[in-house]
Amino acid sequence: MTGREAVTRRTVIAGGCVVAAAAVAGCSSGDQAAERSSQKTLGSTSDIPVGGGTVFADQEVVVTQPTAGAFRAFSAICTHRGCTVNEVVDGTINCPCHGSKYSAADGSVVTGPAQMPLPRREVTVEGGSLKLV
Hints:
By secondary structure, the protein is α+β, with helices and mostly antiparallel strands.
């Protein structure tokens, strides 16, 4: 092994450490700021009735408010055959295709034929606005 090869290896290893350190540093506040800016505003919290919900078909999400101030979000895609749910009525998220109903509180199946719950989605509340994460 020549001196030139040893320096090259050291340089590569040192360079790799610098890149790794920069990546770790980038995963902190910079990524959090990017995440906040990439959140999509769905609407106002006042658009979601207490005990009900609203379907945002374009974003394929349904947001419910089972109790005052407690917002829940789920995929709006029915787990039975992939139709988009269309309403939240009397505490259930309803699919128009085959009659599946899901709990507005936790997305679990209330009435089949669906057998799997609606997957949870994440929303945040910022200044009265609902943001999809």
